[in-house]
Specification:
The chain is mainly α and about 140 residues long. The chain folds into 2 domains: about 80 residues; about 50 residues, no CATH class. Helix content is about 80%, strand content about 0%. It has 5 helices and no strands.
Length: about 140
Amino acid sequence: MESINVEFVQNLLASYKELQESYYALQNRMAAFEAMASAKFEDYEAKLAEKDTVIASLKSEVADLTKKLERYREKDKTNSSNSHMSPSSDKTKFSGVMRTERGAKAYAIIRSFLSTAKKHGVNIMVALRLAFAGKAREAIWGETY
């Protein structure tokens, strides 16, 4: 039988122990890395869930504001389309205007003209200026007769 080189075996065992220690160290580092990655992933998931919650909340607020704006626009349309039917405070500034039939008719004509001009987007002062110049139809419809 051949003789076993003791020094060679001892060196081989030492190398094996070094490799084993390196392997365990790598396993420990890998476990620490996995734990860190898992924690970061969980943190990322939590932030993503929080972001989704904020986005859902903002969408809800936008929907509510849109509904309020639509109601306001509907209310504004209703009010502006019926505004010519309700008396305004301007008749109080012309005291005595509607004491006669002639005054009431004049008031009604002027009020109707101004209401129509306003509905057509014409500046009331421009409409009055053109009306007093004898161009009432032109003031509202842009037509000349």
